[in-house]
Amino acid sequence: MSTALKHKLFEPTILWPALGQAFAKLAPQKLMRNPVIFVTEVVAALVTLMFLRDLVIAGGKPLFSGQIAAWLWFTVLFANFAEAVAEGRGKAQADSLRRTKSQLTARKLMSADGIDVTTIPATDLKVGDMVLVEAGELIPGDGEVVEGIASVNESAITGESAPVIRESGGDRSAVTGGTQVLSDWIRMRITAAPGSSFVDRMIALIEGAERQKTPNEIALSILLSGLTLVFLIAVTTLWGLAGYSGTVLSVTVLAALLVTLIPTTIGGLLSAIGIAGMDRLVRFNVIATSGRAVEAAGDVDTLLLDKTGTITFGNRMATEFLPVPGIRAEELAEAAMLASLGDETPEGRSIVALATGEYGAATPAKQPDAIVSFTAETRLSGVDLGTRRLRKGAVDSMLKFTGLDEARVPAAFRQAVEQVARTGGTPLAVAEGNKLLGVIHLKDVVKPGIKERFAALRAMGIRTVMVTGDNPVTAAAIASEAGVDDYLAEATPEQKLGYIRKEQEGGRLIAMCGDGTNDAPALAQADVGVAMQSGTQAAREAANMVDLDSSPTKLIEIVEIGKQLLMTRGSLTTFSIANDVAKYFAIIPALFVATYPALDNLNVMRLASPESAILSAVIFNALIIIALIPLALKGVAYRPVGAAALLRRNLLVYGLGGLILPFAGIKLVDIAVSALHLV
Amino acid sequence: MSLIGWLQIGLLFLVTFLLIKPLGLFMAKVFSNERTFLSPVLGPVERGFYALAGVDPKKEQGWLAYAFSMIAFSIAGLVALYAIQRLQAYLPYNPQGFAGVAPDLAFNTAASFVTNTNWQSYGGETTMSHFTQMAGLTVQNFVSAASGIAMALALTRAFIRSNATTVGNFWVDLTRSTLYVLLPIAIVIAIAFVAMGLPQTLDGSVTATTLEGANQTIALGPVASQEAIKQLGTNGGGFFNVNAAHPFENPTALSNYLNILAMLMVTAALAYTFGQMVGDRRQGWAFVATIAILLIAGVGVIYWAETQGNPILTALGLDNALGNMEGKEVRFGQAMTAAYAAVTTGISDGGVNAMHGSLTGLGGLIPMFLMQLGEVLPGGVGSGLYGMIVFAILAVFVAGLMVGRTPEFLGKKIEGREMKYAMLAVLILPLSILGFSALSAMLPFAVSSISMSGPHGLSEILYAYTSTTANNGSAFGGLTANTPWYNTTLGIAMLLGRFGYVVPVLAIAGSLVGKTKTTASAGTFPTHTPLFVGLLVGIILILGGLQYFPALALGPIVEHFAMLAGQTF
Question: Does the model's ipTM exceed the 0.85 cut?
Fold first, then answer.
């Protein structure tokens, strides 16, 4: 699905329905949610009446009022269109989800342990029902495996085609409706009523049907409504103030002034920005349960990251061979490689890879006489090659194997072991017979590039905290190598919860990800909790986002998406407000130049005539919405630099740009308007 | 413009600048209830007041109780001042034997002084008895200023405290502002004024024999003491009708300097106090810088416009060497008149040393525009600070999102509730200024009060409602405002401008004080940088001033261009 999600910005399949939607959204009861655009619609209706009046009365200017009315309607339609396009992009995804979900049937077990089944439509399932699902069948609803083990293809939701194992008990018991059992069978208990299952929620969220305004959106709407009121006061009182000097302002020109001054640009694009933000998350295969969580992600101060899988690859790997004096590194590497042939663990394989790769050791020509496989009890592995008995393994096991007492262990070996342990690594000993050859340095390898990533986060003011079950020494070593700001060693779920609470008391917002049931309290406590799709139902319920890829690094992207959403909103607000200056210079002289010719000095753009000036400002105001739809949907480019640098850049582009651009824009429209003799 | 003129202006701002830090630190101590060098003397007095009033200074109030105390106190002041004016004929210290003040004028004056506006529809020396001036007007000069400081303190505490419910105790803030800040400085300045030749007497007038042998009655009174607090508390209500242009209120260039300094120092230093109290002095300096940029620009434009003079008069053969001197005092000159006009309107002082109505179109535009910006440059004592904080909140909200975080100011998240109250406060000003102006411009009996035809007449109306709503109190001159219509509506405008604004501001304080104070990080919107100062200037101009542009275009702006074109009305 992840590839199917990547729609182009403007696809015909989205554009055409969006055009229709733009008209459907003209219904006032729908537009009420957006005060700025609602006012624009009321004003457009009013000017339309003026146009009709101008048509019948003598001396009216139907050409002028007609065009103003048309462009005011366009302004509303463009705003509706922006929202419809954003919604349309989500709908396409929702439709593909819905297809997988439709016509699901369930084989309901009549009793918990019984074998009698009746086939019913999945929509008739109730919470608590027991269902049997066998190989080849689709899982009818969200639930928990109570018996059995099966491989499940969850690609319908995650886009990942590799099957996952679902079994009763433990952290892998949650199954999702719409996914397919590939082998074996499971008995499951339904935990979500039809209509409120994971896929249902996902569809609703993507479609924006459940979309509630987020706190910041509400606050911004208040600001925009307030500004609209301020300009409503300024424009209506202008009628009286102008009357003093004998100027009679028509409803049409006052309407034009009002609509150009109120923040229609951001008002028209606000909901599109919000929907696009959720959409961007979905593109990253993350489902947020609310827009609130996306916003909170932008505010996160501290990231709690699991070491394994996020910061390190998750397996310890051999990085170095430390021979005792008298042994060459190559000899040690060869011995270690041979001894690891019987070790199929990732650690063993990494030793072979290191020895053959960097140390040029060759695999043996002839079959070894005996292979001693690695087991958890012996904690060593090795081979017998003729008379050579090569072994490698945990230091204490190897000392036992060689039969060396403390005194006869070479000092150099002891030093090497200590050196490895001190840096947080794991030392393995290599021996041939009763002779110690040297030490293999196993360590948790930090992912390449992660340090730079954390540095970037730090520049954004985000602290990273590594959470690990390792002992403090190992944790400290990895923490300093990865460049995290803090770490939590030997972490228990309670400790995580405590850490989150402590940070929150200091007024910081925390994001974390987790998958196990024991993570649930911490996920719920965190301001942004991301659960892995592979995790338990409890974790998924507690979190406010679910990562369908189950990738712990996702948290960083989520924060960036949150920030991008807020930045886009702020940039377009600033742009919209800064635009007003130019519009004043277009309209004010046009309104009063007949009474006070001296005011033509304010006509700095040298617009052709008062009427073309007013019309140009209105046209520019409508077109700018269309022009900014791609930006609203794609979001403002985000760079991980500090707030001060971001502010400087965005203020320059959107503040200063918003101040200057309309002067040029209105002038250009004016040239076109007068060239086409529109007024 | 001349170099000497600019040096005078520069010196004035330099001295103010040097006063900001020491005064700001002192006030921060006073308002944090710490001991100061005045405590040994004033401490017992302060405690005496609390005991007398039955106030427990340790008991703090939530924002509602705080607002209620302030409003109750203001209503009491309003009623008392109204009564004193109406009954002044029966009260002592009435050497000229003035009759009681008319009801509409008494209401207007009471509203005016309680709201720290000091709009004067009356001529002081011909209307008010000494008792009214001293026990009525001067008392309100102190306490209305102290109330303003108290409101600013409540809002300041909202940024200091985390997860709290109370914003301070109004009665304590009121008492300490008056006792430790306004009173001592006022005494010092009053003595300086007396030394500069301002009268300070309980006599009503002296009679002089002129050269022609005629008898002239020259009004006198306790001028110096009222002048001191008039400026210090950014009140602006003069003892005499022509305010600080009167030689007894403002006899010399030096007294003029002290006048401007007195009105600037406390309110400018309060910006620093804010920074000190919230633990970020740079924030205080950022406010000071914002104020300085806009205020000095204002002084510059007036100075330039006035020295350019009027080309119409030059064409008629008048010497334009001094520029436009109509309505100005030669002893102050162009530079100090420009400085006075910009400062008195940038601050909600409202005292005048020249007739603003006689300024050129552009010169008259600036005082009006500075008031319309909401009186934050640096505004009235306290009121300027809370107005500036509201603008900072708006600036942070508009642009703060651009750094990718929900907006916060000094560690407090700015959300829907704060936005609602901030917009409510911001709405009051255009509603009152433009609403009443448009109404007056349409009503024939209101228009008949205008003295000039053409756009200047509209400016007279606009200026009056701007001045009163912004609680400035300065007059453009020309408008006959002592009519029932203007007395009543201007009075309402003053009450709206003060209480309609401050109650939402206190609600913001109540909302913010309950929030957790977040710690700043590299990802936090920095609010003390030059960039933020630039942003704040832009927001003040765009959100504070843009809505008045159409109205101004019909008044002073067109007047300016018409003058250049040689057009008269």
Answer: yes
